[in-house]
Amino acid sequence: TSTLVEDCTANVFWYERAISTSEVKLLNECQRVNMIPGMHEMARKSSLARALNRMRRLYPNDFDFFPATWNLPAQLDEFKREHAARAKAGSMPKTYIVKPSAGCQGAGIYLVNGPEELHPHTAAVVQEYLAAPALLDGY
C-alpha cells in the first residue's frame, strides 16, 4: 500500500525504494517525493540499453547519438552476426566495451575485439568502444 496521503499534511515523502507512477498520481500539487518514476530502470545498464535500442528502432534519426549496443545473453547471436558481417566486409576491426549488468563504479568492465573474447555466460551490455567520445564541457 502507498504511504502517500491525500491531504497536504506532508509536503515531502522520502522513499527508500523506487516509486511507481500510480503512487505519483496520488500526490497533491503541494507534495513532492525524492524519486523520479522510472529512474531505477534507467539507472540500470541493461534496462537503459534496451530502452535506447527500442527508441532507435522507432526513431532512428533522433536516436543515433549512442554506439551500437547489445544486451547479453539475449542479443549474443545478434552481436555475433554483426561482428561476422563486419569481418566478412573487410571492415576495420572494432573494439567493444563489456559492462557487467550487475556491476557498478567500473567494476568488471573489460574490452574485447570480438565475441570469442567474451567471458562465457555473462549478463552484460556490450557497446562499440568510443576512443574519443563527445563529452559536455570535457566531462
UniProtKB/TrEMBL annotation:
MF-aspect GO terms: ATP binding; tubulin binding; tubulin-glutamic acid ligase activity
A GO BP entry: microtubule cytoskeleton organization
Keyword annotations: ATP-binding, Ligase, Nucleotide-binding
Coiled coil: none
Domain of life per record: Eukaryota
PROSITE patterns associated with the record: TTL
Pfam families xref list: TTL (PF03133)
Keyword NAD: no
Keyword Nucleotide-binding among UniProt keywords: yes
InterPro entries, A to Z: ATP_grasp_subdomain_1, TTL/TTLL_fam
Cellular component, GO, one term: ciliary basal body
PANTHER family registered for this protein in UniProt: TUBULIN POLYGLUTAMYLASE, TUBULIN POLYGLUTAMYLASE TTLL11
Protein's name in the database: Tubulin--tyrosine ligase-like protein 9
